């Protein structure tokens, strides 16, 4: 599927972030990353080009910058809805 999307010049990252926004607007309780240490990965990629990071790291970076606007706060390896 990813290969087909790339061949059609569709950015997978845009699809992923749009999906995250839809889920957050629907007030899901948590967004978790399994088998990944969010803090370590954010630190590791902080001085590197976001375009070079794996998609899941780019998602983390986006959440770190934007989740608060949707009422989410980082909690361990994920973000949870507050209030």
Instruction: Provide the succession of SSEs.
Output: HHEHHEE
Query: What is the β-strand count?
Result: 3
Biggest sheet record: 3 strands, antiparallel
User: What's the tally of helices?
Assistant: 4
Give the averaged pLDDT, no decimals.
92
Structural class designation: alpha+beta
The separation of the N and C termini measures: 37 Å
Beta-strand fraction estimate: 5-15%
Strand order of the largest sheet: 1-3-2
User: What number of domains?
Assistant: 1
- Indicate the radius of gyration in whole angstroms: 13 Å
- Shape by Cα distribution: globular
Can you describe what's shown?
The protein is an alpha+beta fold and 83 residues long. It is built from four helices and three strands, in the order ααβααββ. It has helices at 2-7, 12-25, 38-45, 55-66, and strands at 30-32, 72-75, 78-81. It has a three-stranded antiparallel beta sheet with strand order 1-3-2, with no helix packed on it. α2 packs across α4 (55-66). The mean pLDDT is 92.
């Amino acid at each position: 599927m990813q290969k087909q999307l790339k061949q059609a010049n569709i950015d997978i990252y845009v699809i992923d972030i749009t999906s995250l926004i839809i889920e957050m607007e629907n007030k899901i309780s948590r967004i978790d990353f399994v088998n990944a240490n969010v803090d370590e990965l954010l630190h590791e990629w902080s001085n590197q080009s976001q375009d070079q990071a794996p998609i899941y790291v780019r998602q983390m970076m986006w959440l770190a910058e934007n989740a608060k606007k949707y009422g989410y706060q980082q909690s361990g390896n994920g973000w949870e809805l507050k209030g």
